[in-house]
Amino acid sequence: MVLEYLDRMSLTVVAEDSVLYESPYWGQHGVSFLVEAYHHNIRKNTLVDVGQNHEALLHNMKEMNISPEIIDSIVLTHCHYDHTLGVVEMLRAIGKEDLPVIAHPSIFRLNFIDNPYLRHVGVMQVDSRDQIEANGGTLYLTDDPFQLMPGLITTGEVKRQTDFEEVGIALKTINEEGKIIVDSMDDDISLVANFKDKGIVIITGCSHAGIVNIVKQAVEISEKENIESIIGGFHLVEAPLDRIKKTVEALSEFDINTIFAGHCTGFRAQAELYHIFKDKFLPLQTGMKFEF
Ligand SMILES: [Fe+2]
Ligand SMILES: [Fe+2]
After folding, report:
1. Which of 77, 110, 150, 227 ranks highest by number of CB atoms within 10 Å?
2. Cβ-count burial of 131 within 10 angstroms (0-12 exposed, 13-18 middle, 19+ buried)?
3. CA 183 distance to own-chain centroid
4. What's the CATH code of the domain at 77?
């Protein structure tokens, strides 16, 4: 697939687990990014995930002078509540009809843990398919790469190519035959922005598909070898050190300019990323703004 190019893009971290030093923003366990993308004379604003606390998200947007009404579409990177809870509240705040909500077809499935106790961690009832549609959202559920505008596309379902990556949590689901099976987080998608001179920017939620698998897929989709930035969560918070080292080593074999990883990346993985990437790495924090 030959991808077109965005003219420019800015990305603002409107929700994340930590906040910039001395900033007025509120942190939460979850992420949300505002992506403002420009192609020719068109500017479209995409909210990537909504965190899990819309009050904190709306507080931050107000502090940043971002009106929810400017949002043109929402991408949900995967089902987890810390990325999807309050999407209906956000649709209400945006106040539009037929607002595209892009996600994988399996996003509304049961997705649970049973240790330390039974708990559904996927899309909550308040954000059900019906509620989304009743509040102005039009669902685009696909496992294919989905273009939001020329130069801005989702990865679609991510092929698992590495042997050292896995989802990072013991998640289960129940299949159509009523059998309890391991949930492999097939719904984990990322966003790829393409730029003529800079290469691609990859925006991830939790990288349950494995950040190396995601980067490989983004490179395949864009047919670009150079990666300007990777921004998001890598879900290595509970990963063994061996996997962390293999992951960072594999990333170092790509042509990556900068990495901004936070949320579920975890301190040990952040330390390893810093160790290898030095000043090309920074922990992700609420309030950061990137211009491409
Ligand atoms: Fe997460
Ligand atoms: Fe997650």
Report:
1. 77
2. middle
3. 18
4. 3.60.15.10
Residue pLDDT, tens place only, 20-34: 999 999 999 999 999
Q: How far is the CA of 197 from the centre of ligand 2 (A)?
A: 32
- Count of CB atoms situated within 10 Å of the CB of 62: 12
Q: Which domain holds residue 83?
A: 8-291
CA of 205 to the centre of ligand 2 (A): 7
265 C-alpha vs ligand 2 centroid, how far in Å?
A: 11
Is the preceding omega at residue 116 within 30 degrees of 0, hence cis? yes
| SS3 (DSSP) at 256 | strand
Return the half-sphere exposure (C-beta side, CA atoms, 13 A cut-off) of residue 143: 9
* Within-domain flag for 89: yes
**N- to C-terminal Cα separation, the chain:** 22
Q: What is the pLDDT of residues 138-166, one digit of tens each?
A: 999 999 999 999 999 999 999 999 999 99
Strand order in the sheet with 226-233: 147-149, 152-154, 191-195, 199-203, 226-233, 255-262, 281-283
Distance 143 CA to ligand 1 centre (A): 20
